[in-house]
Amino acid sequence: MTTARFLRHTRYNPRIFHHERSAHSPAEETNFTSLVDNGPDIVRSGRRHGPGIIVLALIPITAFALGTWQVFRLGWKTELITKFEDRLIKPPLPLPPRIDPDAIKDFDYRKVFVAGRLRHDQEMLIGPRIHDGSNGYLVVTPLEREDGGSTVLINRGWIPKNKKGQADRPEGLPQGQVMIEGLLREPWKKNVFTPDNQPEKGQFYFPDVKQMADLAGCEAVWIEETMTPDLLKAYDREAKGIPVGRPAEVNLRNNHTQYIFTWSVNAPKILHLFLCLQCLSSFLLRYALSAATAVMLWIVVRKPPSEVTRRIRQNKSWR
Questions:
Q1: DSSP characters for 42-105?
Q2: Which of 94, 144, 192, 266 lies 20 to 30 Å from 175 when distance is taken between CA atoms?
Q3: Beta-strand relationship, 124-131 and 134-144
Q4: Minimal CA–CA distance to 131: which of 251, 220, 254?
């Protein structure tokens, strides 16, 4: 068949045209989706920050939060100290015959006076305690009231370690009726670093008022004897073994202003350090590949030629 006859045959052949019209097209399928209908997904590229960067970012935020928290703590502590100092300027009250332990918190740092007889046979020493750089003990003695009132615990003050025995301090053991003026205080709270008391051995490391009251058979009321601050008088009492009482003042620490300054100053510094580390990490990642490529190029250049290269060079040098 010649070319002209083949063209005429295919041009007018209805079977060929029917096959072309019935050819399969993907667009005719029911589940066909074009690129217009199915848009591209946005994929994040580049380096992702690791957990170390997240921790560094949290440090200045934490410092700012701690500084804000110390502001509230400062307001609370200042108000508490003001309330206690307002109680100190009031005249002392006589201690009632019976005291509700739950009401003591409303009279914390309140001046009181009480009369009675000190029970030296039930004396308890709390220590060691440091006073002006010297080691010693706090003397706690039950006071038995003769007017029908309950027996209470008196923190008489500090004595040096060498006056621990009662035989070494006879002047510090007053007999008969005594009048004591001091501060009515809430029971102390034990911290996690202080060991437990051992009352069966007579060893007390912190004033557990409830425990000591049960041991002495008295009411859980804690009074701290006070004295006017006098250096010469304090030295004389220390030498004689007479307990050195505390001054009538509020001894609560209020360092929250320092904490506010510390956290407020450190927060911008830590943030600046975080930004510097971010820039440094970006710089290192940016130029690390260039440095590695330069080192590899230097190794290739410095590598001695192979045997084939030397032969080629020798062949080229032959003229």
A1: P---SPPP-HHHHHHHHHHHHHHHHHHHHHHHHHHHHHHHHHHHHHHTSPPEEPPSS--GGGGG
A2: 94
A3: antiparallel
A4: 251
